[in-house]
């Protein structure tokens, strides 16, 4: 798939559901609220086969789409707490968390999603399997996600300035030109 917008608005929803169907129940709801989905760092790594259902060319799109989903959720929570409850009800975006009981309720930086997808504790898997390259997918995704974000706030949470919100997101980008 060469078009991030098509992937994000169609296939990503299917892929995230497939991903959640593969991970253990205890890993997808580490918060007290079982309506909140969590993605543990380890579930994205090469140590598990949870992402093996993805075509190789879609792994970069999946990682980038997950990054933006988590980032937008975290930006809303951090800067717009008065609106977060409504935002969370409308989006049901997953949280990206650690692995252990002491960190599985702690939100990790969404940038770590890219490292997680390319990581393995097994040296052979780490160094002998191809890493996913995110740069091109990320650059294709930026304008799409900016438009999606602006439209979301215009249509559903108009009290939040979408342009200001997006600027806060940009401050967290891992890849800059």
Topology:
Elements: H1 4-22, H2 25-28, E1 38-40, H3 56-79, H4 81-91, E2 95-97, H5 112-117, H6 123-128, H7 135-156, H8 162-170
Parallel strand pairs: 1-2
Helix pairs in contact: 1-3, 3-4, 3-7, 7-8
Which terms summarize this structure?
two-stranded parallel ribbon; 3% strand; 177 residues; single chain; 8 helices; mainly alpha
Strand percentage: under 5%
Order the strands across the largest sheet as they lie in space.
1-2
* Number of continuous helical runs: 8
Largest sheet descriptor: 2 strands, parallel
Low-confidence segments, given as residue ranges, are none
Fraction in helix: 55-70%
SSE string, helices as H and strands as E: HHEHHEHHHH
Distance between the termini: 24 Å
Give me the Rg, rounded. 16 Å
Our count of domains comes out at 1
Tell how many strands the DSSP assignment holds: 2
Shape: globular
Structural category is mainly alpha
Would you tell me the overall average pLDDT? 90
